[in-house]
Amino acid sequence: MDSADLLSQSRPIELATPAPHRSRQARVTWGQRVVTIGGNAPVRVQSMTNTDTVDAIGTAIQCKELALAGSEMVRITVNTPEAAAQVPYIREQLDRMGVDVPLIGDFHYNGHRLLSDFPACAEALSKYRINPGNVGKGDKKDRQFGQMIEAALKWDKPVRIGVNWGSLDQELLAGLMDTNSQRAKPWEARQVMYEALITSAIESANLAVNLGMSPNQVILSCKVSGVQDLIAVYRELARRCDYPLHLGLTEAGMGTRGTVFSSTALAILLQEGIGDTIRVSLTPQPGEARTQEVVIASEILQSLGLRVFVPSVTACPGCGRTTSVTFQELAKEIDDYLRAQMPVWRHQYPGVENLKVAVMGCIVNGPGESKHADIGISLPGTGEAPAAPVFIDGEKAMTLRGENIASEFHAIVERYIAQRFGATA
Predict the structure, then answer these.
(1) Cβ atoms within 10 A of the Cβ of 410, count?
(2) How far is CA 321 from CA 207, 240, 366, 389, in A?
(3) Does the annotation place 319 within a ligand binding site?
(4) Is 369 marked within a binding site?
(5) Where, in this chain's numbering, is [4Fe-4S] cluster bound (predicted)?
């Protein structure tokens, strides 16, 4: 059977696309800036500062860096009266810099007091993160949780009820463990932990709604540090409720491990239509910018086709045909340049984030990949003629030779962007 007959008798291969979301939609605002979460909104990228919030200038600068990198909301620690007192000044500094990114207050243990004692802090924040595992114990728990919801209602702020298995409500867990021990076939301890996480989140959300919160202003998260644990918990959480869900491993780790663990867990859930905001909780390596976690979160969404943030640069991995490192250096230079320009280009050149660039290292796949890109270059490999054909919009446009191939291609990319996307602007 030839290929034509085979094609005529086969069905088209189903395209792989992420499943649609089924959650409610929340709104996080600051001034004219509105960030929608859930429903038909794009999956949002979040991050968190690691500065001391008492250092208002340092925290504001890092918030700006994270926002410019693509973080659509930034969470800051509010753990002491001194930190709470500085939140309005952080907001003021950002507003002066023209950065309207919404700020999320991360509260633990004493949030009920801080929101009450520092009304300017409560007003300056755009959302409150509440951990039901450490708002109080015994009869204090519901009362102090209620005080935080009261502040959210007073200032018209949404809340994220964020359960964490490292600080899970021990009374709830103990009760579920007791119930489990009486089953004819007890669950595994980990399954009871899953149930405790989900129960804590949903019961807290329902309590917030009973206290007056709109269901559309409640976001949930159940964070764990294991990939399979996260998948199991969020699948069940999504099945049981329609609140918007925030995804992320609670401690992903650093470097390669943190990147791989977060990418694996989040990609599986996002492909299934689970998750409305994400954070990649990376431990920065020495000297690494905090913005790296934003870059990885954005790349996860872009790789799945859920969002487009920056132009994509395709580059071959290299092999025995590519002993020169020129294509590696050029690919990195172009990628770094495009990413650095995006805060300006996003407004100056609408649509530039859809640009596809190819920087290839030899003749095997180089011309083909370059033709598939908007603009591409196929550099000479080992033993090949010292020439680099450049393809623009699928057609060979020119051939570069000599010592200045990299700088000449860089200029070609800049001209292409200005001509194609500048016309749109």
Answers:
(1) 15
(2) 64, 54, 12, 17
(3) yes
(4) yes
(5) 316, 319, 362, 369
